[in-house]
Amino acid sequence: MAGHGARGRSGGRPTLEEVAARAGVGRGTVSRVINGSPRVSDTTRAAVEAAVAELGYVPNTAARALAANRTDAIALVVPEPETRFFAEPYFSDMLRGVGAELSETEMQLLLIFAGSDRERQRLAQYLAAHRVDGVLLVSVHADDPLPDLLSQLEIPAVISGPRSEAETLPSVDSDNYGGGRSAVEHLLSRGRTLIAHITGRLDVYGAQRRVDGYRDALRDAGHEVRESLVEQGDFTEEGGRRAMTELLARHPDLDAVFAGSDVMAAGARQVLREVGRRIPEDVALVGYDDSAIARHMDPPLTSVRQPIEEMGRRMLDLLLTEIADRRPAVSRGLERRRVVLATELEVRASS
Questions:
Q1: In what residue span(s) does the HTH lacI-type domain sit (predicted)?
Q2: Cis peptide before 299, with omega less than 30 degrees from 0?
Q3: pTM as predicted
Q4: Superfamily for 73-174+326-342?
């Protein structure tokens, strides 16, 4: 057995990965033990503590006293206007998941909105002063400069869904492609043939993947993919209304709609009601998120559930691992960590 002052395999100070390998557990588990989380079995805790002692690893809690640049705070950054944050259940569910996981640590959570250029500049100055130990980025658009800024500043960060296939930051997402596909396959199984899609903002990678799932489900079932049946929305209720109006103008005979969020589905439903279309007799309707909106709609809305609270918990778990390691993923040559959680279709009366 290695003595207390043993060096890691790299010859330098032992790393979190080496402790994890010695204990036979994942990095996140080591991070939880070191941060005193109760969500670890006694057996696992003993194995990690033994590995820490054998390798002479300086745990995060001890390092905290040595490192003057620790703030014991993380930021949940939302690059959206506050109005959208409070209007969409997605954000509150994400916040709930992060909060539940964070409550087991000594760290504070800051909620920061960065929906305007002025707010982004203020945030950049705040982050440059290293006032937080890490950042959770939620609802990031493809052209957002924030992720690259965080990489430059070497601030540990985790993103709630990659900006593209080439994302460099660790990310936690749901299976948007599979979710979009299951929605359309369900509508096809109900005998619907003219299925429209209201997309989310297409500078959001998850929205693009839902469109890919929609198209592939139609193609694989032998249906023509007609771009005139796809209308871009923006994840808002008004966007859903506008898109539904456009789709009906082009295809008054459409018999199903897959909306990229429950909020947009609610807007689409209003328009369908106004023009006398019955749901689901004339037009079947499917949403996405399986939020409270879906359950309380009349008729109740079939929707794709993504485990948003779990996504929040997993994001924080990844971030705590990044912080405990103290080297951002990019400087490690990116041990690429992209967590993708399964989605599930909740079938209700609207389809």
A1: 14-68
A2: yes
A3: 0.76
A4: Response regulator (3.40.50.2300)
Using the structure block, give the residue that is written with the tokens 């328009």: 271
Percent of the chain with pLDDT over 70: 90
CATH class belonging to 16-66: mainly alpha
Residues of the chain with CATH 1.10.260.40: 16-66
Alpha carbon distance 232, 224 (integer Å):
19
What is the Cα Rg of the chain in Å? 23
Packing angle between helix 27-34 and helix 42-55, nearest 10 degrees? 90
Cβ pair 139, 160 in contact under 8 A = yes
- Interatomic CA distance for residues 235 and 102, integer angstroms: 28
Which ranges in the chain are annotated with CATH 3.40.50.2300?
73-174+326-342, 176-305
Decide: 81 and 113 in contact? Cβ < 8 Å.
yes
Read off the tokens for 208: 């693009």
pLDDT tens-digit profile of 252-261?
A: 999 999 999 9
User: Which helix (H) or strand (E) element contains residue 149?
Assistant: helix 146-152
Q: Buried b / exposed e across 49-58, counting CB within 10 Å, b at 16+?
A: eebbebbebe
Q: Which two tokens stand for residue 201?
A: 């903002």
Q: Which segments of the chain are extended strands (E)?
A: 73-78, 108-113, 134-137, 157-159, 171-174, 195-199, 230-232, 256-259, 284-289, 302-305, 338-341, 344-346
Domain 176-305: top CATH class: alpha beta
Q: What is the mean pLDDT of residues 69-75?
A: 80
Stretch 40-52: mean pLDDT: 88
CA 202/CA 205 separation, integer angstroms: 7
DSSP, residue by residue, 224-276 = ---GGGEEE--SSHHHHHHHHHHHHHH-TT--EEEESSHHHHHHHHHHHHHTT
Token duo for residue 330: 């990019």
